[in-house]
């Protein structure tokens, strides 16, 4: 059984932050990953992936957004209906983007965290509405773009608004999308040929689909796909944040139904 590497839950930038540190033997500043949870999710909703990233040498931090159930967000309705992406704009869930940018600013000035982070190697990861958040911060919404972010991992991301109103074609940093064949509410719009989020995203971009994975495959609720998710997620960040030439993002492992790159 893998030991849980979560070492702290701290208050920073007015947010509840879960922190996973790399192994204590590491003495050099670590690359940073900021994780954004799903709608009504929680900053600890995907412990398996946070652990895998920490074990691979990343400092991982995850805030609770105001809609987090574990942060007291309750069951508030979405700001705009998910079934009506045409009504979403860069004002929709702007508070989530502000959480991440405020957190990054706070980390840069924090006496404990600032010297532990390699600020030339910053990545974002997010699930569902968290995927929407990090794609927006990558430049899907140009007004949200954070120049210091070097790579983005979007896990079953709600990204329809970007195909209609956003700027996926000018993101300019590596993006990996992940989906599942049973993730019927989101993955079809990510993978749609010519018109989906992956197709409209600038190169380099990747799409990985896991056979029979549903929307919650990227959370603690379903262990079936965790090793495969860890494999592609860690290799993606290793390639683009660490420059690891051994990271093989095009190797199709068992359980992968679709694998694309450009």
Task: Summarize the structure in short.
26% of the residues lie in helices and 23% in strands.
Give the termini separation: 37 Å
Roughly how many Å is the radius of gyration? 17 Å
Oligomer: single chain
Number of E-state strands: 9
CATH class: Alpha Beta
Which residues form runs of ≥5 with pLDDT under 50?
A: none
**Helix-strand pattern, N to C?**
EEEHEHEHEHEHHEHE
How is this fold's topology laid out?
Layout: E1 6-12, E2 15-20, E3 30-36, H1 47-55, E4 59-63, H2 94-109, E5 117-127, H3 129-140, E6 149-155, H4 160-165, E7 175-180, H5 187-191, H6 197-200, E8 205-210, H7 226-241, E9 256-261
Parallel strand pairs: 3-4, 3-5, 5-6, 6-7, 7-8
Antiparallel strand pairs: 1-2, 2-4, 8-9
Account of the 3D structure:
- The structure is a single chain.
- By secondary structure, the chain is an alpha/beta fold.
- It has a single domain (6-261), classed as 3-Layer(aba) Sandwich (Rossmann fold).
- Helices cover 26% and strands 23% of the residues.
- It is built from seven helices and nine strands.
- It has helices at 47-55, 94-109, 129-140, 160-165, 187-191, 197-200, 226-241; strands at residues 6-12, 15-20, 30-36, 59-63, 117-127, 149-155, 175-180, 205-210, 256-261.
- Strand 3 (30-36), helix 1 and strand 4 (59-63) form a beta-alpha-beta unit.
- Helix 1 packs across helix 7.
- 47% of the residues are buried.
Which descriptors apply to this entry?
single chain, nine-stranded mixed β-sheet, 262 residues, alpha/beta, 23% strand, Rossmann fold
């Amino acid at each position: 059984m893998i030991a849980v590497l979560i070492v702290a839950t701290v208050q920073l930038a007015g947010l509840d932050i879960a922190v996973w540190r790399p192994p204590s033997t590491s003495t050099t500043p670590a690359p940073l990953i900021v994780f954004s949870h799903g709608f009504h999710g929680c900053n600890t909703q995907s412990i398996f992936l946070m652990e895998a990233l920490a074990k691979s040498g990343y400092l991982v931090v995850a805030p609770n957004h105001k809609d987090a159930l574990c942060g007291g967000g309750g069951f508030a309705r979405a700001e705009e209906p998910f079934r009506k992406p045409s009504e979403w704009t860069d004002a929709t869930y702007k508070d989530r983007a502000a959480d991440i940018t405020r957190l990054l600013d706070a980390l840069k000035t924090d006496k404990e965290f600032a010297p532990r982070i390699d600020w030339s190697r910053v990545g974002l990861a997010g699930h569902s509405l968290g995927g929407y958040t990090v794609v927006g911060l990558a430049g899907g919404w140009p007004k949200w773009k954070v120049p210091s972010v070097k790579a983005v991992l979007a896990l079953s991301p709600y990204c329809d608004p970007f195909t209609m109103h956003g700027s996926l074609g000018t993101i300019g940093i590596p993006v990996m999308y992940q989906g599942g064949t049973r993730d019927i509410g989101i993955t079809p719009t990510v993978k749609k040929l010519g018109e989906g989020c992956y197709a409209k995203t600038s190169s380099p971009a990747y799409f990985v689909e896991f056979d029979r994975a549903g929307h919650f495959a990227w959370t603690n609720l379903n262990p079936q796909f965790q090793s495969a998710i860890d494999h592609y997620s860690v290799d993606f960040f290793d390639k683009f944040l660490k420059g690891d030439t051994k990271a093989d993002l095009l190797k199709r492992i068992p359980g992968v139904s679709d694998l694309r790159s450009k």
